[in-house]
Amino acid sequence: MISEQSSSNNNEAMFNTLLAMADSDLIHGQRLAELCSKGPELEIDIALSNIGLDFLGQARMLYQRAAAYAPQPTDEDKLAYLRTEREYRNNLLVEQPNKDFAYTIVKQYLLDNFRKHFLQNLMNAKDQDLAGIAGKAVKENTYHLKFSTDWLLRLGDGTAVSHDKTQAALDYLWPYCFDLFVMSGHDRNVTESGNFPDLSDIEKNWLDDVTAGLKTASLTIPDNYMKYTGGKDGNHTEYLGYILAELQYLQRSYPGLNW
Questions:
Q1: pLDDT, tens digit, for every residue of 121-145?
Q2: Does the reported pTM lie above 0.85?
Q3: Cα(229)–Cα(177) distance, rounded to whole angstroms?
Q4: Backbone angles phi, psi at 222, to 5 degrees
Q5: Which of 130, 169, 123, 172 is nearest to 148 (CA)?
Q6: 94-128 tens-digit pLDDT
Q7: Are 60 and 205 within 8 A, CB to CB?
Q8: Exposed, middle or buried: residue 127 (CB in 10 Å: 0-12, 13-18, 19+)?
Q9: Do 148 and 28 touch, CB atoms closer than 8 A?
Q10: Which residue from 193, 183, 195, 188 is spatially nearest to 134, judged by alpha carbons?
């Protein structure tokens, strides 16, 4: 028989792991939303907006699932809008700014390749609701990855200017990638229960795919880089606070406002 304490610990682990997943999707979706009406051409503008909406939709489902495991009654709006910067558990990559189109594409490409392996594994989760969320996200990520891969090749293997800008984006963003593969104590607990993948296995597959894609795009992985981590511990770059100030403004200015 599972003890009440053990059940409580498992619920806490599920809550925190789901929260980190939802936070990453929310912040990335918000970053893409910043580009609405600012794309280099109409088709790209619409594509990035739609990808952002996919991430926001996935975040919403994950927040709803996290609320089911929360120690205190809560809902998706409270989790998204009423927590402070240090309470967010998103990875550091997604909060990096959209400096130019090359930065947007490189970040999307790195993230899409991670999600390809992560979501496929997550479809085997024992939590059927979580497996269902992953199954829907896998279909969306197939399009996201095709979009980012096509544009990475165009930019990296294009003109001298586009290549240099794309290489600069990769040099900047690469050190933040490794926060994607950090496993918290909660993650390990959930992995043992069959509801979260082993990220060390995913990292190897991700690196193989990304290395091959970057080579095809005539891009080079930087040497002598730092690995920036800490998102799951609430240690973020200065950019997250500005994102949350905009994201949470309406709810904090008018508490209890409904959609």
A1: 999 999 999 999 999 999 999 999 9
A2: yes
A3: 9
A4: -65, 155
A5: 169
A6: 999 999 999 999 999 999 999 999 999 999 999 99
A7: no
A8: buried
A9: no
A10: 195
